[in-house]
Design a protein that fits this description.
The chain has three domains: 293 residues, no CATH class; 87 residues, no CATH class; 58 residues, Arc Repressor Mutant, subunit A (Orthogonal Bundle). Helices cover 40% and strands 21% of the residues. The chain has 16 helices and 16 strands. It has a nine-stranded mixed sheet with strand order 2-6-7-10-1-11-12-13-14. Strands 5-4-15 form a three-stranded antiparallel sheet, with no helix packed on it. A hairpin with a 4-residue loop joins strand 13 and strand 14. The chain starts with a strand and ends with a helix. It binds adenosine-5'-diphosphate, zinc ion and magnesium ion (MG).
Protein backbone atom coordinates (compact mmCIF):
# COMPACT_ATOMS: atom_id res chain seq x y z
CA UNK A 1 0.00 0.00 0.00
CA UNK A 2 1.15 3.56 -0.76
CA UNK A 3 0.94 6.09 2.07
CA UNK A 4 0.67 9.86 1.96
CA UNK A 5 2.22 11.94 4.75
CA UNK A 6 0.16 14.82 6.20
CA UNK A 7 1.95 17.55 8.14
CA UNK A 8 0.93 20.71 10.01
CA UNK A 9 3.37 23.04 11.79
CA UNK A 10 3.12 25.09 14.96
CA UNK A 11 5.72 27.85 14.79
CA UNK A 12 6.75 30.07 17.67
CA UNK A 13 8.39 33.33 16.67
CA UNK A 14 9.86 35.82 19.12
CA UNK A 15 8.67 39.32 18.32
CA UNK A 16 11.42 41.89 17.97
CA UNK A 17 10.29 44.23 20.74
CA UNK A 18 12.74 45.88 23.13
CA UNK A 19 10.67 45.05 26.19
CA UNK A 20 8.66 42.02 27.28
CA UNK A 21 4.98 41.56 26.54
CA UNK A 22 3.49 42.35 29.96
CA UNK A 23 6.26 44.28 31.76
CA UNK A 24 9.13 46.66 30.95
CA UNK A 25 12.00 44.14 31.26
CA UNK A 26 14.49 43.94 28.39
CA UNK A 27 14.29 41.09 25.87
CA UNK A 28 17.99 41.22 24.93
CA UNK A 29 19.52 37.78 24.32
CA UNK A 30 22.57 36.58 26.24
CA UNK A 31 22.34 38.68 29.42
CA UNK A 32 23.47 37.05 32.72
CA UNK A 33 20.87 34.56 34.04
CA UNK A 34 17.93 36.10 35.92
CA UNK A 35 19.16 39.67 35.38
CA UNK A 36 16.13 40.64 33.27
CA UNK A 37 13.21 39.98 35.58
CA UNK A 38 10.74 41.93 37.71
CA UNK A 39 7.74 41.13 39.94
CA UNK A 40 5.43 40.92 36.91
CA UNK A 41 7.37 38.36 34.87
CA UNK A 42 8.34 36.48 38.05
CA UNK A 43 4.64 36.23 38.87
CA UNK A 44 4.96 37.70 42.37
CA UNK A 45 1.67 38.22 44.20
CA UNK A 46 0.07 41.60 43.68
CA UNK A 47 1.83 42.42 40.43
CA UNK A 48 -0.27 43.34 37.42
CA UNK A 49 0.51 42.82 33.73
CA UNK A 50 0.03 45.53 31.09
CA UNK A 51 0.03 44.46 27.46
CA UNK A 52 2.79 45.80 25.18
CA UNK A 53 1.02 47.63 22.33
CA UNK A 54 3.97 47.16 19.99
CA UNK A 55 3.77 43.38 20.39
CA UNK A 56 0.06 43.43 19.55
CA UNK A 57 0.65 45.53 16.44
CA UNK A 58 3.49 43.33 15.29
CA UNK A 59 1.42 40.16 15.67
CA UNK A 60 -1.40 41.90 13.80
CA UNK A 61 1.00 42.79 10.98
CA UNK A 62 2.05 39.14 10.79
CA UNK A 63 -1.61 38.20 10.58
CA UNK A 64 -2.11 40.62 7.67
CA UNK A 65 1.01 39.34 5.90
CA UNK A 66 -0.34 35.78 6.20
CA UNK A 67 -3.64 36.86 4.70
CA UNK A 68 -5.60 36.27 7.90
CA UNK A 69 -8.77 37.83 9.15
CA UNK A 70 -7.81 39.97 12.15
CA UNK A 71 -10.27 39.70 15.00
CA UNK A 72 -11.19 43.20 16.07
CA UNK A 73 -11.41 41.91 19.61
CA UNK A 74 -9.33 39.06 21.00
CA UNK A 75 -8.84 37.55 24.46
CA UNK A 76 -5.79 36.87 26.59
CA UNK A 77 -6.21 33.64 28.51
CA UNK A 78 -4.40 31.72 31.22
CA UNK A 79 -3.04 28.32 30.25
CA UNK A 80 -2.50 26.59 33.57
CA UNK A 81 0.28 24.10 34.21
CA UNK A 82 3.09 23.67 36.66
CA UNK A 83 6.74 23.70 35.71
CA UNK A 84 9.81 25.23 37.40
CA UNK A 85 10.45 27.58 34.47
CA UNK A 86 6.93 29.04 34.81
CA UNK A 87 6.82 30.81 38.17
CA UNK A 88 3.24 32.12 37.75
CA UNK A 89 1.85 28.61 37.34
CA UNK A 90 0.22 29.66 34.08
CA UNK A 91 1.24 31.04 30.72
CA UNK A 92 -0.65 34.00 29.30
CA UNK A 93 -1.72 32.97 25.80
CA UNK A 94 -4.75 33.10 23.56
CA UNK A 95 -7.25 30.28 23.21
CA UNK A 96 -10.74 31.24 22.16
CA UNK A 97 -10.84 34.37 20.02
CA UNK A 98 -7.18 34.56 18.94
CA UNK A 99 -5.75 37.65 17.28
CA UNK A 100 -5.92 36.36 13.70
CA UNK A 101 -7.48 33.37 11.89
CA UNK A 102 -8.01 31.78 8.47
CA UNK A 103 -4.99 32.86 6.49
CA UNK A 104 -2.90 31.39 3.76
CA UNK A 105 0.61 31.56 2.43
CA UNK A 106 1.76 30.97 -1.11
CA UNK A 107 5.37 29.87 -0.96
CA UNK A 108 7.20 30.63 -4.22
CA UNK A 109 9.54 27.81 -5.18
CA UNK A 110 11.79 27.30 -8.19
CA UNK A 111 10.44 24.82 -10.69
CA UNK A 112 13.34 23.47 -12.68
CA UNK A 113 11.03 22.07 -15.37
CA UNK A 114 12.51 21.03 -18.70
CA UNK A 115 16.27 21.41 -19.17
CA UNK A 116 17.07 24.28 -21.50
CA UNK A 117 13.74 26.03 -20.90
CA UNK A 118 14.00 29.00 -18.51
CA UNK A 119 12.67 27.97 -15.08
CA UNK A 120 9.34 29.19 -13.82
CA UNK A 121 8.04 29.43 -10.26
CA UNK A 122 5.56 27.10 -8.68
CA UNK A 123 3.62 27.88 -5.54
CA UNK A 124 3.08 25.81 -2.44
CA UNK A 125 -0.27 26.77 -0.95
CA UNK A 126 -0.48 26.48 2.84
CA UNK A 127 -3.49 27.41 4.96
CA UNK A 128 -3.02 29.21 8.28
CA UNK A 129 -5.40 28.23 11.07
CA UNK A 130 -4.48 30.95 13.54
CA UNK A 131 -1.91 33.48 14.73
CA UNK A 132 -1.93 34.34 18.40
CA UNK A 133 0.08 36.27 20.94
CA UNK A 134 1.59 34.66 24.04
CA UNK A 135 4.47 34.89 26.47
CA UNK A 136 7.53 32.67 26.60
CA UNK A 137 8.52 30.64 29.66
CA UNK A 138 11.96 30.52 31.29
CA UNK A 139 14.63 27.97 30.58
CA UNK A 140 15.62 24.99 32.74
CA UNK A 141 19.16 23.74 32.50
CA UNK A 142 19.57 20.11 33.44
CA UNK A 143 23.32 19.67 33.70
CA UNK A 144 24.70 16.21 34.44
CA UNK A 145 25.29 15.54 38.18
CA UNK A 146 24.16 19.02 39.13
CA UNK A 147 21.05 20.64 40.45
CA UNK A 148 18.59 21.78 37.81
CA UNK A 149 19.12 25.48 37.16
CA UNK A 150 16.46 27.92 36.04
CA UNK A 151 17.00 31.11 34.01
CA UNK A 152 13.89 33.28 33.97
CA UNK A 153 15.15 35.96 31.52
CA UNK A 154 12.89 34.54 28.83
CA UNK A 155 9.76 34.63 31.01
CA UNK A 156 7.36 37.08 29.43
CA UNK A 157 9.27 37.52 26.17
CA UNK A 158 6.63 38.13 23.47
CA UNK A 159 5.94 35.20 21.16
CA UNK A 160 3.60 34.77 18.30
CA UNK A 161 2.32 31.29 17.55
CA UNK A 162 1.48 30.50 13.94
CA UNK A 163 -0.46 27.29 13.30
CA UNK A 164 -0.75 25.88 9.77
CA UNK A 165 -3.44 23.65 8.31
CA UNK A 166 -2.36 20.05 7.66
CA UNK A 167 -1.43 21.01 4.08
CA UNK A 168 2.20 19.89 3.90
CA UNK A 169 3.10 16.54 2.34
CA UNK A 170 6.80 15.94 3.04
CA UNK A 171 9.72 17.00 5.22
CA UNK A 172 10.95 19.00 2.26
CA UNK A 173 7.67 20.91 1.91
CA UNK A 174 7.65 21.58 5.65
CA UNK A 175 11.12 23.08 5.56
CA UNK A 176 10.39 25.05 2.35
CA UNK A 177 7.35 26.53 4.08
CA UNK A 178 9.26 27.32 7.27
CA UNK A 179 12.04 28.93 5.26
CA UNK A 180 9.60 31.22 3.49
CA UNK A 181 7.69 32.04 6.69
CA UNK A 182 11.00 32.93 8.31
CA UNK A 183 11.81 35.25 5.41
CA UNK A 184 8.40 36.94 5.66
CA UNK A 185 8.99 37.64 9.36
CA UNK A 186 12.51 38.92 8.70
CA UNK A 187 11.43 41.17 5.78
CA UNK A 188 8.76 42.68 8.05
CA UNK A 189 11.28 43.10 10.92
CA UNK A 190 8.93 41.15 13.17
CA UNK A 191 11.37 38.41 14.21
CA UNK A 192 15.13 38.03 13.77
CA UNK A 193 14.61 34.44 12.64
CA UNK A 194 17.57 33.14 14.64
CA UNK A 195 16.84 29.46 15.24
CA UNK A 196 20.02 28.81 17.22
CA UNK A 197 19.06 31.42 19.80
CA UNK A 198 15.50 30.11 19.86
CA UNK A 199 13.89 33.18 18.27
CA UNK A 200 12.13 30.83 15.85
CA UNK A 201 11.01 27.36 16.96
CA UNK A 202 8.86 24.73 15.36
CA UNK A 203 6.81 21.72 16.41
CA UNK A 204 5.60 19.39 13.67
CA UNK A 205 2.37 17.37 13.65
CA UNK A 206 2.42 14.40 11.32
CA UNK A 207 0.25 11.49 10.29
CA UNK A 208 0.11 9.17 7.29
CA UNK A 209 -2.85 7.78 5.38
CA UNK A 210 -3.38 5.49 2.40
CA UNK A 211 -3.13 7.43 -0.87
CA UNK A 212 -6.64 8.44 -1.94
CA UNK A 213 -7.98 8.51 1.63
CA UNK A 214 -9.48 11.90 2.52
CA UNK A 215 -9.90 11.64 6.30
CA UNK A 216 -6.89 12.28 8.51
CA UNK A 217 -4.88 9.57 10.25
CA UNK A 218 -3.79 9.62 13.90
CA UNK A 219 -1.03 12.17 14.35
CA UNK A 220 2.01 12.51 16.52
CA UNK A 221 3.57 15.83 17.46
CA UNK A 222 7.35 16.19 17.29
CA UNK A 223 8.99 18.77 19.52
CA UNK A 224 12.47 20.17 19.68
CA UNK A 225 13.09 20.89 16.02
CA UNK A 226 15.43 23.83 16.13
CA UNK A 227 16.91 23.69 12.64
CA UNK A 228 15.73 23.06 9.10
CA UNK A 229 17.88 19.97 8.94
CA UNK A 230 16.33 18.49 12.09
CA UNK A 231 12.82 19.30 10.85
CA UNK A 232 13.53 17.47 7.60
CA UNK A 233 15.22 14.48 9.19
CA UNK A 234 12.73 14.11 12.04
CA UNK A 235 9.75 14.18 9.68
CA UNK A 236 11.31 11.68 7.29
CA UNK A 237 12.05 9.38 10.21
CA UNK A 238 8.61 9.76 11.76
CA UNK A 239 6.83 9.16 8.44
CA UNK A 240 8.79 5.94 7.93
CA UNK A 241 8.09 4.86 11.51
CA UNK A 242 4.32 5.41 11.17
CA UNK A 243 4.19 3.52 7.87
CA UNK A 244 6.03 0.61 9.51
CA UNK A 245 3.55 0.62 12.42
CA UNK A 246 0.55 0.54 10.06
CA UNK A 247 2.06 -2.08 7.80
CA UNK A 248 2.60 -4.40 10.74
CA UNK A 249 -1.12 -4.13 11.47
CA UNK A 250 -0.75 -1.94 14.57
CA UNK A 251 -2.12 1.55 15.25
CA UNK A 252 -0.26 4.83 15.54
CA UNK A 253 -0.51 6.12 19.10
CA UNK A 254 -1.41 9.79 19.43
CA UNK A 255 1.44 11.22 21.45
CA UNK A 256 4.09 13.88 21.70
CA UNK A 257 7.53 12.73 20.60
CA UNK A 258 10.95 14.25 20.90
CA UNK A 259 13.60 14.36 18.17
CA UNK A 260 16.83 12.85 19.44
CA UNK A 261 19.56 14.16 17.21
CA UNK A 262 22.26 11.81 18.55
CA UNK A 263 20.25 8.69 17.83
CA UNK A 264 18.55 10.14 14.76
CA UNK A 265 15.12 9.03 15.91
CA UNK A 266 12.00 10.31 17.62
CA UNK A 267 11.00 8.86 20.97
CA UNK A 268 7.79 9.20 22.99
CA UNK A 269 7.58 12.10 25.46
CA UNK A 270 3.97 11.94 26.62
CA UNK A 271 0.83 10.26 25.36
CA UNK A 272 -2.64 11.71 24.88
CA UNK A 273 -3.72 10.27 28.26
CA UNK A 274 -0.96 12.20 29.97
CA UNK A 275 -1.81 15.37 28.05
CA UNK A 276 -2.54 18.35 30.25
CA UNK A 277 -5.91 19.81 30.86
CA UNK A 278 -4.83 23.42 30.80
CA UNK A 279 -8.06 24.82 32.24
CA UNK A 280 -7.94 27.83 29.95
CA UNK A 281 -9.87 30.89 31.08
CA UNK A 282 -9.68 34.61 30.18
CA UNK A 283 -7.08 36.38 32.31
CA UNK A 284 -9.02 38.58 34.77
CA UNK A 285 -6.05 40.97 35.04
CA UNK A 286 -6.08 41.85 31.34
CA UNK A 287 -8.64 43.56 29.15
CA UNK A 288 -9.55 42.12 25.77
CA UNK A 289 -7.27 43.31 22.97
CA UNK A 290 -9.15 45.66 20.65
CA UNK A 291 -7.56 46.91 17.45
CA UNK A 292 -9.52 49.81 15.91
CA UNK A 293 -10.16 49.46 12.19
CA UNK A 294 -8.26 52.70 11.40
CA UNK A 295 -5.20 51.46 13.28
CA UNK A 296 -5.31 48.19 11.36
CA UNK A 297 -5.44 50.15 8.10
CA UNK A 298 -2.35 52.11 9.18
CA UNK A 299 -0.51 48.88 9.94
CA UNK A 300 -1.49 47.52 6.54
CA UNK A 301 -0.24 50.67 4.82
CA UNK A 302 3.13 50.73 6.58
CA UNK A 303 3.75 47.03 5.97
CA UNK A 304 7.02 46.50 4.06
CA UNK A 305 6.93 44.60 0.78
CA UNK A 306 6.69 40.82 1.24
CA UNK A 307 9.51 38.70 -0.20
CA UNK A 308 7.23 37.08 -2.83
CA UNK A 309 5.93 40.49 -3.98
CA UNK A 310 9.43 41.83 -4.11
CA UNK A 311 10.57 38.83 -6.15
CA UNK A 312 7.71 39.39 -8.58
CA UNK A 313 8.63 43.07 -8.91
CA UNK A 314 12.29 42.17 -9.51
CA UNK A 315 11.08 40.04 -12.40
CA UNK A 316 9.15 42.81 -14.11
CA UNK A 317 11.30 45.81 -13.13
CA UNK A 318 14.76 44.31 -13.66
CA UNK A 319 13.98 41.49 -16.06
CA UNK A 320 15.43 38.81 -13.78
CA UNK A 321 14.27 35.31 -14.59
CA UNK A 322 12.10 33.59 -11.95
CA UNK A 323 14.88 31.57 -10.32
CA UNK A 324 17.05 34.68 -10.03
CA UNK A 325 14.24 36.70 -8.43
CA UNK A 326 14.30 34.21 -5.53
CA UNK A 327 18.09 34.45 -5.24
CA UNK A 328 17.93 38.26 -5.17
CA UNK A 329 15.33 38.22 -2.38
CA UNK A 330 16.97 35.76 0.01
CA UNK A 331 17.34 38.48 2.64
CA UNK A 332 16.15 42.10 2.79
CA UNK A 333 19.79 43.15 2.98
CA UNK A 334 20.66 41.32 -0.21
CA UNK A 335 17.59 42.70 -2.00
CA UNK A 336 18.38 46.29 -0.91
CA UNK A 337 22.00 45.97 -2.04
CA UNK A 338 20.88 44.52 -5.35
CA UNK A 339 18.46 47.37 -6.01
CA UNK A 340 20.90 50.12 -5.06
CA UNK A 341 23.52 48.55 -7.30
CA UNK A 342 21.21 47.79 -10.23
CA UNK A 343 19.99 51.37 -10.29
CA UNK A 344 23.53 52.58 -10.98
CA UNK A 345 24.66 49.73 -13.21
CA UNK A 346 21.68 49.42 -15.56
CA UNK A 347 22.59 45.73 -15.97
CA UNK A 348 20.70 43.86 -13.23
CA UNK A 349 21.71 40.36 -14.31
CA UNK A 350 25.36 41.29 -14.14
CA UNK A 351 24.85 42.88 -10.69
CA UNK A 352 23.36 39.64 -9.42
CA UNK A 353 26.23 37.61 -10.88
CA UNK A 354 28.79 39.83 -9.16
CA UNK A 355 26.86 39.65 -5.90
CA UNK A 356 26.59 35.87 -5.75
CA UNK A 357 30.14 35.61 -7.13
CA UNK A 358 32.95 37.96 -6.14
CA UNK A 359 31.10 39.93 -3.45
CA UNK A 360 29.82 36.88 -1.57
CA UNK A 361 33.10 34.98 -1.89
CA UNK A 362 35.24 37.82 -0.55
CA UNK A 363 32.86 38.47 2.34
CA UNK A 364 32.59 34.80 3.23
CA UNK A 365 36.37 34.44 3.27
CA UNK A 366 36.52 37.25 5.82
CA UNK A 367 33.52 36.03 7.81
CA UNK A 368 31.66 39.27 7.11
CA UNK A 369 28.02 39.99 6.35
CA UNK A 370 26.82 42.03 3.40
CA UNK A 371 26.16 45.01 5.69
CA UNK A 372 29.89 44.99 6.51
CA UNK A 373 30.97 45.02 2.88
CA UNK A 374 33.71 47.57 2.18
CA UNK A 375 32.30 47.78 -1.35
CA UNK A 376 29.19 49.95 -1.35
CA UNK A 377 26.23 48.88 -3.50
CA UNK A 378 26.40 52.00 -5.66
CA UNK A 379 30.13 51.47 -6.22
CA UNK A 380 29.56 47.93 -7.43
CA UNK A 381 26.97 49.36 -9.81
CA UNK A 382 29.49 51.93 -11.03
CA UNK A 383 32.12 49.24 -11.60
CA UNK A 384 29.69 47.25 -13.74
CA UNK A 385 28.86 50.40 -15.68
CA UNK A 386 32.54 51.05 -16.44
CA UNK A 387 32.82 47.47 -17.61
CA UNK A 388 29.70 47.64 -19.79
CA UNK A 389 30.61 50.91 -21.48
CA UNK A 390 34.04 49.55 -22.35
CA UNK A 391 36.07 51.85 -20.07
CA UNK A 392 37.68 48.79 -18.48
CA UNK A 393 37.97 45.16 -19.55
CA UNK A 394 36.58 42.17 -17.67
CA UNK A 395 40.04 41.30 -16.45
CA UNK A 396 40.68 44.83 -15.20
CA UNK A 397 37.32 44.84 -13.44
CA UNK A 398 38.40 41.93 -11.24
CA UNK A 399 41.50 43.84 -10.22
CA UNK A 400 39.56 47.03 -9.60
CA UNK A 401 37.06 45.11 -7.49
CA UNK A 402 39.86 43.72 -5.33
CA UNK A 403 41.22 47.26 -4.81
CA UNK A 404 37.72 48.51 -3.99
CA UNK A 405 37.33 45.76 -1.41
CA UNK A 406 40.70 46.50 0.16
CA UNK A 407 40.49 50.29 0.20
CA UNK A 408 36.77 51.10 0.10
CA UNK A 409 37.55 53.57 -2.72
CA UNK A 410 35.21 54.13 -5.65
CA UNK A 411 35.95 52.34 -8.94
CA UNK A 412 36.33 55.69 -10.74
CA UNK A 413 39.05 56.79 -8.32
CA UNK A 414 40.93 53.49 -8.70
CA UNK A 415 40.75 53.56 -12.50
CA UNK A 416 42.16 57.12 -12.52
CA UNK A 417 44.78 56.37 -9.89
CA UNK A 418 46.12 53.32 -11.70
CA UNK A 419 45.64 54.78 -15.12
CA UNK A 420 43.68 51.71 -16.01
CA UNK A 421 41.13 53.02 -18.39
CA UNK A 422 40.83 50.88 -21.46
CA UNK A 423 41.66 52.53 -24.78
CA UNK A 424 38.42 52.58 -26.72
CA UNK A 425 39.24 55.60 -28.79
CA UNK A 426 38.90 54.40 -32.38
CA UNK A 427 41.39 56.71 -34.06
CA UNK A 428 43.98 56.15 -31.34
CA UNK A 429 43.71 52.40 -31.80
CA UNK A 430 43.77 52.73 -35.58
CA UNK A 431 47.17 54.41 -35.34
CA UNK A 432 48.51 51.62 -33.14
CA UNK A 433 47.09 48.87 -35.35
CA UNK A 434 48.42 50.31 -38.62
CA UNK A 435 51.83 50.81 -36.99
CA UNK A 436 51.91 47.13 -35.99
CA UNK A 437 50.85 45.98 -39.47
CA UNK A 438 53.58 48.12 -41.11
CA UNK A 439 56.34 46.70 -38.95
CA UNK A 440 55.19 43.11 -39.59
CA UNK A 441 54.65 43.26 -43.33
CA UNK A 442 55.82 39.69 -43.81
CA UNK A 443 53.24 38.32 -41.37
CA UNK A 444 50.59 40.47 -43.05
CA UNK A 445 51.53 38.89 -46.34
CA UNK A 446 51.18 35.37 -44.93
CA UNK A 447 47.84 36.24 -43.30
CA UNK A 448 46.51 37.49 -46.61
CA UNK A 449 47.69 34.25 -48.23
CA UNK A 450 45.40 32.30 -45.93
CA UNK A 451 47.20 31.95 -42.61
CA UNK A 452 44.23 33.28 -40.65
CA UNK A 453 45.61 31.95 -37.38
CA UNK A 454 48.00 34.90 -37.35
CA UNK A 455 45.19 37.19 -36.19
CA UNK A 456 45.97 36.23 -32.59
CA UNK A 457 49.58 37.25 -33.12
CA UNK A 458 48.55 40.74 -34.25
CA UNK A 459 46.13 41.13 -31.33
CA UNK A 460 48.96 40.17 -29.00
CA UNK A 461 51.26 42.80 -30.53
CA UNK A 462 48.64 45.55 -30.12
CA UNK A 463 48.01 44.49 -26.52
CA UNK A 464 51.73 44.52 -25.79
CA UNK A 465 52.17 47.99 -27.17
CA UNK A 466 49.18 49.34 -25.21
CA UNK A 467 50.16 47.45 -22.02
CA UNK A 468 46.91 45.51 -22.17
CA UNK A 469 44.71 48.58 -22.19
CA UNK A 470 43.34 48.38 -25.72
CA UNK A 471 39.66 47.44 -25.95
CA UNK A 472 40.00 43.84 -27.24
CA UNK A 473 36.74 43.86 -29.15
CA UNK A 474 37.69 47.00 -31.01
CA UNK A 475 41.22 45.73 -31.75
CA UNK A 476 39.81 42.60 -33.34
CA UNK A 477 37.41 44.63 -35.42
CA UNK A 478 40.09 47.03 -36.63
CA UNK A 479 42.56 44.27 -37.42
CA UNK A 480 40.06 42.33 -39.49
CA UNK A 481 39.04 45.45 -41.34
CA UNK A 482 42.59 46.56 -42.16
CA UNK A 483 43.91 43.07 -42.95
CA UNK A 484 41.01 42.11 -45.18
CA UNK A 485 40.99 45.26 -47.29
P1 LIG B 1 -4.32 19.62 18.85
O1 LIG B 1 -5.73 19.78 19.29
O2 LIG B 1 -3.75 18.28 19.06
O3 LIG B 1 -3.42 20.74 19.31
P2 LIG B 1 -4.90 20.97 16.42
O4 LIG B 1 -6.13 20.61 15.70
O5 LIG B 1 -4.90 22.20 17.26
O6 LIG B 1 -4.38 19.74 17.25
O7 LIG B 1 -3.77 21.11 15.34
C1 LIG B 1 -2.45 21.34 15.70
C2 LIG B 1 -1.59 21.16 14.47
O8 LIG B 1 -1.64 19.81 14.04
C3 LIG B 1 -2.00 21.98 13.27
O9 LIG B 1 -0.84 22.43 12.62
C4 LIG B 1 -2.74 21.00 12.39
O10 LIG B 1 -2.61 21.31 11.02
C5 LIG B 1 -2.02 19.71 12.68
N1 LIG B 1 -2.85 18.51 12.54
C6 LIG B 1 -4.07 18.29 13.08
N2 LIG B 1 -4.48 17.05 12.78
C7 LIG B 1 -3.51 16.46 12.06
C8 LIG B 1 -3.33 15.16 11.47
N3 LIG B 1 -4.24 14.20 11.60
N4 LIG B 1 -2.20 14.92 10.80
C9 LIG B 1 -1.23 15.87 10.70
N5 LIG B 1 -1.35 17.09 11.22
C10 LIG B 1 -2.46 17.39 11.90
ZN1 LIG C 1 9.59 41.79 33.98
MG1 LIG D 1 -3.91 22.83 19.31
Amino acid sequence: MQYEPVIGLEVHAQLRTRSKVFCGCSTRFGAPPNSQTCPVCLGLPGSLPVVNGRAVEMAAMAGLALDCRINRRSLLARKNYFYPDLPKGYQISQFEEPLAVDGRVRVPLPDRGTPGVPGTLRELDVGIIRVHLEEDAGKSIHAARQDTLVNLNRCGVPLMEIVTCPDLRSGREASDFLDYLRRVLIFLSLCDGNMEEGSLRCDANVSVRPVGETSLGTKTEIKNLNSFRFLNKALDYEIRRQVRVLESGRQVVQETRLWEEDREETRPMRSKEEAHDYRYFPDPDLLPIVIPAERLEEIRKTMPELPADRARRFGSQYGLDPGDTLVATRTPEFADYFEASAERARNPKSVLNWMVGDVTHRLRKDGRGLHESPVKASDLGELIRLLDDGTISGKMAKGVFDRMYETGKSPGAIVREQNLAQISDRSELETVVSGILESHSEAVERYRNGKRGLLGFFVGQVMRQTRGQANPKMVNELLRKMLDQ
